[in-house]
Amino acid sequence: MPICYCHTRRCAEDGGRELDFRVYRQHQRDDVAASYSQQLISQNPRNEAEVLSTIESEILRATLLEPPFQTDMMQEPDILSGNHSGSPSVNSNTLPLPRSSNEEIQLKLTLENLQKIQSAVRDFLSTTLRTLSDSALGLGLDRIPTNYPLNAHVEWFLKQRNTVKTFQGQLSSPLLDVLIGLVLTNINDTLCHIREHYNQWVFPVLHHFDTEKYFSHPLRRANPLVIQAMTSALLLNLLGGISRDHSNFILQSQASLVESAFRLALGAEFDPKLRDLLKEFPKDIRTARKRFDLEGDI
Ligand SMILES: [Zn+2]
Which spans does this entry mark as compositional bias, Polar residues (predicted)? Predict the structure, then answer.
């Protein structure tokens, strides 16, 4: 049985651990996968594409071209022949190596498919990004979702993503999982770019339309006392159906009520600022309606 000195599962910390072949293989693969993930995280984003392809080929080599299956089988003690030295020549002469285990076939198949998808995604990704950078894209079309010029692209990427997702967690290969993660990141990034463009294309209004006038209502800067006075008079006038003269009386009596309050609290010679405030109280209900923007356009 092989002795494992891996770091991911801390066999090295224990000074090495004797493991079953299958478990040993798993530990070794976990270690390699962890180092690739680490590499990916610590890389400069500028060289990302380069790093991705390097890692991919390394993963491919580690998982496919140098599978641990064969060497494991050869090192296994040959119990049948009584030869415990595990000499490869004896093994290869007497026993057919069960190299194409079901797991290996599956792994190989998935990797092949994944590689195909990844290279297609990478090709299509660069064309898509080029198309996106064209400022004339989608000009002259009705800006409705079904007309969006990259709809077919989105559909294609979504389809690839679904396919890649079906590979997830099917095989116990952390290397494969790393590769799946890379492909999914590529697809998601592209979809994100398209989504951004789509939003600007379908809703250009949100980006260019000046909404200032809807937020600068004249009442925004009005004094709350004035607003309160106008509101009660307006409600009586519009909903209570009282006449214009009576509404004007209510407006004016509210203004004199506020003025009396100021005099009582502050004396006859109160702050000039408050005098100006009193001038803000409309004397006519039609002025109040105008200030609330309630007059119909005639
Ligand atoms: Zn280990």
Answer: 82-98
Contact call for residues 126 and 153 (beta carbons, < 8 A): no
Cα(35) to centroid(ligand 1), Å: 14
What is the Cα–Cα distance from 33 to 37, expressed in whole angstroms? Answer: 6
Calculate how far, in angstroms, residue 57's C-alpha sits from the geometric centre of ligand 1.
24
The tens digit of pLDDT for each residue in 199-217 reads 888 876 655 555 555 555 6
- SS3 of the chain: CCEECCCCCCCCCCCCEECCHHHHHHHHHHHHHHHHHHHHHHCCHHHHHHHHHHHHHHHHHHHHHCCHHHHHHHHCCECCCCECCCCHHHHHHHCCCCCCCHHHHHHHHHHHHHHHHHHHHHHHHHHHHHHHHCCCCCCCCCCCHHHCCCHHHHHHHHHHHHHHHHHCCCCCCHHHHHHHHHHHHHHHHHHHHHHHHHHHHHCHHHHHCCCHHHHCCHHHHCCHHHHHHHHHHHHHHHCCCCCHHHHHHHHHHHHHHHHHHHHHHHCCCCCHHHHHHHHHCCCCHHHHHHHCCCCCCC
Distance 14 CA to ligand 1 centre (A): 10
From the CA of 15, how far away is ligand 1's center (Å)?
A: 10
In the chain, where the domains are located: 1-76, 105-209, 218-291
Of 205, 195, 203, nearest to 144 (Cα)? 203
CA–centroid distance, 60 to ligand 1, in Å, is 22
Residues 18, 22, 28, 30: is their CA dihedral positive or negative?
Answer: negative
Side-chain half-sphere exposure of 271, counting CA atoms within 13 A: 8
Are 40 and 55 spatial neighbours (Cβ–Cβ below 8 Å)? yes
Q: What is the pLDDT of residues 156-191, one digit of tens each?
A: 999 999 999 988 877 767 777 777 888 888 899 889
